[in-house]
Write a structure and sequence with these properties.
By secondary structure, this protein is of the alpha+beta class. It is built from four helices and four strands; from the N terminus they run βααββααβ. Strands 2-3-1-4 form a four-stranded antiparallel sheet.
Amino acid sequence: MEKFAILARVEAKPGKENDVLEFLKSALPLAEGEPGTVRWYALQIGPSTFGIFDTFGTTDARDAHLNGEIAKALMANASELLAKEPVLEMVDLLAVK
């Protein structure tokens, strides 16, 4: 059962919006390969604002995701793609359908 989540917001540099969009889409297979990640959503909030929302059954699974391949790839490309540091919020889920 999902009890924990991460809400991440990223802001693309001007002219890098499509690159961020494609990066997020390309991360889906990595998320699918994480047994502790229950659900993984990549989303576009505005023209240059994107997000990731993922859910986990345990804090250990959430921590593993934070130290996983998606986070590593994002941070390796952050200076090229992102206007500022990603904003990460650790979330406790209250109700899930």
